[in-house]
Design brief:
The protein is mainly α. The chain has one domain. Helix 1 packs across helix 4. The longest helix is centred in the C-terminal third of the chain and has 28 residues. The protein is globular and about 50 Å long. The two termini are about 25 Å apart. About 50% of the residues are buried.
């Protein structure tokens, strides 16, 4: 469920975002949205650890399918209580099918890749997606151009990605084994699909549907796309399930998808999108922190350097104002 504006992996927020227009300069940041964004980014960082724990017990397709099924139930209940319109016009179904396809591919790559890499690397690589959105928006969305500071941010961030791959290549050259290149590439591909989905949503759906309805159609159509292949191809999907596995499944399906992304939509309606986006650099930092704390992963020098570069790049790319992006026809 990913979308525009530049959210971490897993968010689809495309409600109209009000920009601050206070005369005489920007106001100081209000404490409430700051606290909310600290909480949300920490939950998105924790989610990378949760995915690794979940895929250790349940096969990737089944895990993503069950996650989506739980989220669909919660979103349907939420929509009914809020009297949201859950039907769609024919053109909206077509666009919904496209973003559901992106969403399915993204999560399959993400969940499968998480098995073959560490939690910290997973958190860093997954969160380059807003950087890829910035590149796509430059070419496909009017009013969302790459400025010199944003371009410098991209250079910093991709330097961080290169640093991570350097670490793995050196490990392989030294005959140490345990390489993470396979998982790293899958997670990076997942971030690229996330970015493509985000630009597509911004170009074709942001002005047609509310954020809730975009999230809903995406989950509705992708749920069977996860579950049917899982039933056909995953022979022993529940290979190591315990209470922690089930807790993480509920955390992702009932909390991360419905609550954190919907809360971000509420914040987008009430506060400046550019100010909210500037907090996204915290997500990989939280991810590395929780991976070290909960998974006991060692934090290497290269990982710290990559985190600093990617985090700085994210901050420069997402901390911006200016006119809203429009479709490039």
């Amino acid at each position: 469920m990913t979308g525009v504006p530049h959210l971490p992996a897993g968010a689809t927020a495309t409600d109209p975002e009000p920009e601050a227009t206070e005369p005489g300069g920007a106001r100081p940041a209000e404490p409430a949205p700051v606290l909310w964004m600290l909480g949300l980014t920490s939950m998105w960082g924790l989610n990378t650890v949760s995915i690794k724990v979940l895929t250790a017990g349940i096969s990737p397709l089944t895990a993503t399918g069950l996650r989506a099924l739980i989220a669909l139930g919660v979103l349907t209940l939420f929509g009914r209580l809020r009297r949201e319109r859950l039907g769609y016009a024919r053109a909206e179904w077509r666009h919904g099918a496209v973003i559901a396809l992106f969403h399915t591919l993204q999560f399959v790559l993400m969940y499968t890749g998480s098995i073959y890499t560490t939690g910290g690397r997973f958190a860093i690589l997954l969160n380059v997606s807003p950087l890829l959105v910035a590149i796509g928006a430059h070419y496909f969305l009017l009013g969302d151009r790459l400025t010199p500071p944003r371009g410098f941010g991209l250079i910093l961030a991709f330097g961080g990605v290169a640093l991570l791959f350097r670490e793995d290549l050196l490990r392989g050259a030294g005959g140490g084994g345990g390489g993470t290149t396979r998982g790293d590439l899958m997670v990076l591909a997942s971030a690229a699909v996330w970015a493509a989905n985000a630009v597509y949503i911004k170009r074709y759906l942001a002005q047609r549907l509310t954020g809730f309805r975009i999230v809903y159609v995406q989950v509705l159509l992708s749920t069977p796309a996860f579950l049917l292949p899982a039933l056909l191809y995953e022979r022993n999907p529940f290979h190591d399930v315990d209470w922690l596995t089930l807790a993480n499944l509920l955390f992702q399906g009932a909390f991360i998808t419905p609550f954190t992304y919907m809360m971000f939509l509420v914040l987008l309606r009430r506060h400046s999108a550019s100010k909210l986006q500037s907090f996204t650099f915290l997500t990989p930092i939280w991810g590395v922190f929780f991976s070290a704390l909960l998974l006991g992963e060692a934090v290497t020098f290269d990982a710290v350097g990559a985190l600093a570069l990617v985090g700085s790049g994210l901050y420069l790319v997402t901390r911006r104002g200016g006119p809203r992006a429009r479709r490039r026809d």
